[in-house]
Automatic annotation (TrEMBL):
<protein>
    <submittedName>
        <fullName>Heme NO-binding domain-containing protein</fullName>
    </submittedName>
</protein>
<dbReference type="InterPro" id="IPR024096">
    <property type="entry name" value="NO_sig/Golgi_transp_ligand-bd"/>
</dbReference>
<dbReference type="InterPro" id="IPR038158">
    <property type="entry name" value="H-NOX_domain_sf"/>
</dbReference>
<dbReference type="Pfam" id="PF07700">
    <property type="entry name" value="HNOB"/>
</dbReference>
<dbReference type="InterPro" id="IPR011644">
    <property type="entry name" value="Heme_NO-bd"/>
</dbReference>
<feature type="domain" description="Heme NO-binding">
    <location>
        <begin position="51"/>
        <end position="96"/>
    </location>
</feature>
């Protein structure tokens, strides 16, 4: 089963470049000589990833919390989707504001307001 983020990526690529271009992209990725070493369990995988994102809670109240998200891979939009997905899962209504803290996008600040 494909994740929501990947599914949305597939839809965007297919809309912008066409289904044939997406199929070609996948075929090229599958043929890349990528070595993951000896990954046999979650500990091995975490050590392979090396640089995990970090989340720091800046402030929290009953209706709002602010977090800083840092990722050397600049995946703030993935974090945003995870926050929204959590709210959907728990049937909560929230407003999320995502602001880049640095010019590279590796440090994002999220303000989450419960409604």
């Amino acid at each position: 089963m494909k994740g929501l983020t990947f599914t949305e990526f597939v839809e965007v690529v297919e809309q912008v470049f066409g289904k044939k271009a997406f199929k070609t992209l996948i075929e090229r990725i599958e043929n890349l000589p990528i070595s993951t070493g000896d990954i046999n369990n979650s500990i091995d995988f975490i050590q392979y990833v090396e640089t995990l994102p970090t989340v720091e809670f800046i402030s929290m109240s009953s209706t709002q919390f602010i977090i800083d998200y840092r990722s050397p891979r600049c995946m703030g939009h993935v974090c945003l989707d995870l926050i929204k997905g959590c709210a959907t899962h728990f049937k909560e209504y929230i407003a999320v504001d995502m602001v880049p803290v640095d010019k590279w996008g590796s440090h994002m600040r999220f303000t989450i307001d419960k409604r």
